Amino acid sequence: MDKNRIEGGAQEVKGTVKEAVGKLVGNERLTSEGKADQVAGKTQSTVGDVKSNVGNAIKNAIDR
Length: 64
Fold this sequence. Notes:
Blueprint: H1 3-25, H2 28-63
């Protein structure tokens, strides 16, 4: 796993917790921030996936 996937996963968890707490206490702003953090985390994880896939493709091309 690379840095982006790890940080993205952590951001998603943070967002999930924020959203749950926001819903629990009735704070719409906190709920929205949680959802935004989840999206940011998923995006960062996707960046990590893309980097990994590109790196693997380059490695495979070189090995051929």
